[in-house]
Amino acid sequence: MDIGIVLRKARERKNLTLADAEDGTKIMSKYLAAMEQEKFTEVPAGIYGSGFIRIYARFLEIDADELVARYREATGSWPAPPEDEEVPRAKVRPARRIWYYAALAVFAGLVIVSALGSGLFSR
To answer: What's the predicted TM-score (pTM) here?
Structure first.
């Protein structure tokens, strides 16, 4: 079965209009209609198109991964890495800005405590 037919039938089974689907997915109805008609040249290319397919399929509660794979195969866009190949992950560093503000707060606290302790604010 084709991608567009699967999407349209799933939407119709839920008695939803394209406007309902637009409200639920935040994807413009012209793109939803284009996907249902398999006019993929009218849908943003690359990762946006496969993202639209994934969002729409999840909204309709159908297998998103299968439809995205079909879409990628049909359009030749953004092939998924082989399942046996490990995908490199970006290294995540803790935010340095947090440490800066924490050190600044500790320093300000020490200044206030030492000022209070020296009697600077007493009469």
So the answer is: 0.62
